[in-house]
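Quick question, first post here. What does this chain look like in 3D?
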Amino acid sequence: MRTLLPDLAPWKASADFRRLWKSGLISNFGSFLTFVALPVQLKDLTGSAAAVGAIGAVELLPLIVCGLYGGALADALDKRKLIVRTEAGQGLLSAALLLNALLPHPAVWPLYVVAALSSALVSVQRPALDSLWPRIVAHTDMPAAASLNSLRWTVGAVAGPALAGVVVACAGLGWAYAADLLTFVVSLAYIVRIAPCPASLAAASKPSLKAILEGARYAWSRKELLGTYVVDLAAMSLAMPLAVLPFLADELHADWSLGLMYAAVPAGSLLVGLTGGWVSRVHRHGLTVVLAATGWGLAVAAAGACRNVWLVLVLLAVGGGFDMVSGIFRAAMWNQTIPDELRGRLAGIELLSYSVGPQLGQVRAGGLAAAAGVRFSVVSGGLACAGALGLLALCLPRLMAYDARTDEHAVRMREHRAAVTRTAG
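> Answer (accepted):
Ran it through. Tokens below.
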């Protein structure tokens, strides 16, 4: 049973990890309320599917630009201060949505402005968060920390939208935005208690294009890291089926199952997170990332081929579980091998790798479904994902050979962390 239960070593060892985990759980839960409420409000105000879809368009450019710049900021500034300021900024945006919703005639344009600004703030904050974890968690506990962080996210992804649907339907949009604002207030109360996390002396230079390019050159020199980015991009851009799930539910004559389909993928991820005690015992992280991403593609392909709606739901959950495993070990590789002075900039690149892929996948799935049919879109995407990952495995031998016990970068970071601990003691 111990190998199935979550490994709580990071939780027990670090008070700052506990505070940051709780903060993330609370604010993530609230963010999913707005994630549902915002498109619902746009639909009510405009009646246009194109207007709702435009949310993704206004979010994309801030994500790309601010993700890279946010990585440079995370390496140059105190990470805690950066997280506090961006969290407060997101709270103010929730307040703006609440005020707009309370107007007799809510305006449409503030919804797009808030969506763009929120994307920018999240993109600045995420590299700081991702680069803070290695500072507050022991090197050997990184896989367990990655599993617990993934668990935190999936709890919000499963429960947040479900609660949002009830709140919006029964209480109104204003209550959803008010609840999101409250979660940011509570989240800030946890974050401000985290110890200061100043920039490393080796990276405490002014954020600049030169600094961003330095991070990009380091990523290019680490082919195993580059492999993790490419694997995730291939898995999401080729096999992400969410855009066509409403049409798949129609083909199965099961409109009632659409909500369950959307929940199935994060539910599978949640199950892995709840039974993730085994992750600290796995050392071949690169191989595990590729196998898990391949499992995701095959599960999606099988779901597209099935005629039984319950089996489709099971396969989507299996796919979500594989995706969670891939994500856990990608994060472990990043956090156990990247030098502290470059961690923020690499986190900015990681943000692009796992954020752009799903959006490209939505475009691919929808376009191919319109041209060749829903099932062909889902099945071919899943099989293309598995095939592409097979080719990547052949082209990325350093990723496949990565072993956390012997990799030179992991060993160097482990020794560095041990020396810092001895000096602090």
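The chain has a mean pLDDT of 87.
The two ends are 35 Å apart (CA to CA).
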